[in-house]
Amino acid sequence: MKTIFSGIAGLFFAALIFSSCHKLDVPITSELTSQSFPTTAAQYNAASGAMYIALRNDYATSYFFTQSCSTDEAVLPSFGPNWVDGNKYVELHRHTWTKDNAWVNSTWTYFANIIGTVNQTISIFKGAPASASKTTSIAELRTVRALAYFWMMDNYGNVPLDTLYGATDLKTNTPRAQVFSYVESELKTAIPSLKTNVDGTTYGQVTVNLAYAILAKMYLNAQVYTGTQRNDDCITYCDKIISSNAYSLEPMSTYLQQFYPTNGPSAKEFIFAIPFDATTSSGNMFFARYDLNRNLGIKYRYSGSTAGGYTDPVMNQSTGNGLSNIQPSGPRMTTDEFYANFNDPNDVRNKQWLTGAQTWDDGSPIMVATTKKGYDQFYTGTDASYVYALNLTPLGHTSRNGATSFDLGNDEIAWNIGYRNIKFLADYTNTISRNQSNDMPIFRYSDIILMKAEAIFRGGTPTLGATALSLVNQLRANRTTSAALTSLTLDAIYAERSREFAWECWHRNDMIRFGKYENTWGLGKTNTDTYRRLFPIPTVAFQTNAKLVQNTGY
Questions:
Q1: Which of these ranges, 263-272, 304-313, 332-341, has the smallest mean pLDDT?
Q2: CA–CA separation, 81 and 407 (whole Å)
Q3: Whose CA is closest to 269, among 77, 444, 138?
Q4: What is the rounded distance in angstroms from the CA atom of residue 404 to the CA atom of residue 195?
Q5: Are 420 and 296 in contact (CB under 8 A)?
Q6: Global confidence as pTM
Q7: Is pLDDT above 60 for 345?
Q8: Closest to 88 measured CA to CA, from 60, 72, 107, 111
Q9: Interval 355-390: pLDDT, tens
Q10: 249 touches 446 (CB < 8 A)
Q11: CA count, 13 A, side-chain hemisphere, 537
């Protein structure tokens, strides 16, 4: 990555200029004014840096947990006293959250901070002299604000539209369909002024293709948001990206490498990504470290660690008993229901999972030293040293602590339950903090291909000589050596999306659109309330705006 991020990070001093609080209107805390700044393209870029910082802040934490842990894709159970955390994880998993759930609150705040930062920045830019740089920069800001409102509408439904910095009047909820129209209008207004070049200079920054991708995603979900399907419009904006010839599908040989700590501008599929660099940016990026327990850091380190130019300097160093001196964070795993989508043994995407018996590179088993009681908390005999072969078992549907328990136990058996995703390979050269250097893609070219396929399958008009089946097979030709599909169903498209975008924050959106969000999965998720397709307006929002109206059901 990481040349481009260093360049962007150099612009991020603007974070000191634009400090955002948990409101849509944030105070100016700088002497910087429109009379003195910005004027040059470099100054506009620097001043826009605060927007990118706001976008980065909670994407890999709060946003991930609400998008994935509320689905069958990911679950973070408790292990004795570990990760109970006010029940915020079990509430997401079992669809029992309230407006006080910590992740529901912090996700709202994440969106609001992006919007507030953009509003503040635009208020300064508007007073600056007219220039091409000003026009482009404001268009970029409006695009990111539209993205934040798209996310907010997707998660919370009817939300307040507050787009004027310094306004003192509180806004009540705007109906979801009107928020949809606002986002659509903002993007279409911004498009003529957005950059069209796709290269290292625009990596991690707003281009016209980000606006196209947001519109395509909105139109694919229009039936959910507005009650009216917009499949042809989805196809139109997918085609704009396809016809640009700016992107291509990664072949099997490099599919996994596009998510490694060394990813960046070389990724052929990244339409828009959030850059992370542990050496130049603050704030934790938890995707990799939350997926493993203290025993699995070794296997994570040893799996494909030299592929794609990523070489781990601590590779092949063992403490002799299978334990690592590096302590990853708590294990975030998948459910049996989600893992069932990975049923093709020839698919490269299977390699994003750690499952079953774990071995060293030479094929020998990883052995872990503990005690009999440390291995099994229910052991009642005399304690003694115990060595076992590391083996990951499926999550199942019942905890060893009882059918209704979310607690897997606090022993080695429990710690090794659950299949772990290692898509965003952890950088174990960084042993000091959880910060990681994996850039996070928000939109990839493969999403454009599958969105177009789904839109056609749902009734849209085929274009550019493609059919839904040919598009799905186009993707699969770059992911598996198995034979091409000869027919297609919606469930097949859903399974393909599950395989392709695991851990990329789209699964909640997919489950709702495919009518699967009320299914049963994992450790006690049986709630079928359809109103939970929206999260409640959280407590933190009501603390600053009494005019808000709570979503139905809450």
A1: 304-313
A2: 9
A3: 444
A4: 53
A5: yes
A6: 0.90
A7: yes
A8: 107
A9: 999 888 788 888 888 999 999 999 999 999 999 999
A10: yes
A11: 19
